[in-house]
Amino acid sequence: MVERQCESFQTQKQTTYIAMSKASLVITMSMVVMGTMVMAFPPNYGEALTKSILFYEGQRSGKLPPSQRMTWRKDSALRDGSDKHMDMVGGYYDAGDNVKFHFPMAFTTTMLAWSVVEFGDLMDSELKNALNAVRWGSDYFLKATKYSPEMIVAQVGDPVLDHDCWERPEDMDTARTTYFITQQKPGSEVSAEIAAALAASSIAFQKIDATYSKTLLDRAYKVFEFANKYRGSYNYSIGEAACPFYCDHNGYQDELIWAASWIYKASKSAYYWDFVKANIQSMGGNIVEFGWDSKYAGINVLVSQWVMADAYNANPFIPNANIFVCSLLPNAPIKSVSYTKGGLMYKPGEQSNIQHPTALSFLSIVYARYMHAAKKQVQCGNEAVDPSRLINLAKTQVDYILGNNPLGMSYMVGYGAKYPEKIHHRGSTMPSVEVYPKHIGCRDGDQYFKSAAPNINILTGALVGGPAQDDSFQDSRYNVGQSEPTTYLNAPFVGVLAYFNKPTIQF
Question: Domain 14-501's class?
Answer without folding.
Answer: mainly alpha
